[in-house]
Design goal:
The protein is of the alpha+beta class. It has eleven helices and eight strands. A four-stranded antiparallel sheet has the order 5-6-8-7.
Length: 284
């Protein structure tokens, strides 16, 4: 079987099917096909030049279905069919969708949590349930030409292209903003430098997502630790420590001790209530 279709992982695409309720209550099966992947390829290729809007800390592209029809007349599908195809991609969490009415009406799309599964190497197992987000170990980023664990090029299919570095940064920073409720910018040179350094160390997109998810679970909403949910902390030299920490939420702080943190231990092995703010800034 060919590894990719339009640059997307065919093996994973084949798992994207489900039974839904259709018209008149009758059940029907929907699945991702070549036309859907062609439309997704169009979105990926033109994404850098599309008008963007920031909604809840995540970047969405504003697009018109008429433009899609004009750019790919070979599809020969109606505007309604374009809408249904885009909504199918949303249904399978390949895209996220927002409908905005603000000085006009806007159909906004962003990349969803399952998009990364379509642009990864086929050397790794795929999810059997499309509704369940997947995680993968040791995948060296998204897109290809990807390399399996032994570091040799994957020559099965060279039609996948590496996601541009800036798109990786956008994906990571938008995930941080969404999870932590922040508004960091992917255009920050300092943030780009940190992410590039960790990628040069061999860490993958999934590793960044894992660090963000684990540390927001631990620190979000904590008056003393929430401010450390920032690129300079998460993507710095302690990245490996954060990656290997447990994802368990913190225990409720006891009232004794400075700041009510008696019994909670920081990464330096010292109870948080015994660290000054200067100490904490140096630790995280």
């Amino acid at each position: 079987m060919k590894s990719t279709i339009a640059g997307f992982n065919q093996e994973f695409a084949l798992t994207l099917k489900k039974t839904v309720e259709g018209k008149n209550g009758a059940e029907k099966t929907i699945k991702i096909d070549c036309t859907d992947l062609t439309i997704l390829r169009w979105l990926v290729d033109f994404w850098p030049s599309m008008k963007k809007m920031n909604v809840d800390g995540k970047e969405y592209a504003w697009l018109t279905h008429k433009k899609l029809q004009e750019d790919i007349p070979l599809l020969d599908i109606s505007k309604r069919a374009c809408v249904e195809r885009m909504q199918k991609l949303v249904e399978f969490k390949i895209l996220d969708y927002k409908f905005l009415k603000q000085g006009g009406t806007f159909s906004l799309y962003a990349f969803g949590e399952n998009y990364i599964n379509l642009v990864r190497s086929t050397e790794y197992p795929v999810c059997s349930q499309p509704d369940t987000p997947c995680t993968f170990d040791h995948t060296p980023g998204v897109g290809s030409t990807l390399h399996p664990v032994d570091g040799q090029p994957d020559n099965k299919d060279i039609s996948i292209k590496d996601m541009p570095f800036i798109d990786k940064v956008k994906y990571i920073v938008e995930h941080l903003n969404e999870k932590a409720g922040k508004r960091y910018k992917p255009t920050s040179k300092d943030t780009q430098t940190l992410i590039r350094a960790r990628m040069n160390d061999g860490y993958s997109m999934e590793d960044f997502v894992a660090v963000i998810d684990k540390m927001t679970t631990k620190w979000k909403g904590d008056a003393k630790m929430d401010d450390y949910l920032r690129p300079s902390t998460l993507f710095g030299t302690k990245f490996e420590n954060y990656l290997n920490t447990s994802a368990a939420p913190p225990q409720p702080a006891r009232p004794a001790g400075r700041g009510g943190y008696a019994g909670q231990v920081g990464p330096n092995g010292v109870p948080i209530d015994q660290n000054s703010q200067r100490d904490l800034d140096a630790i995280f």
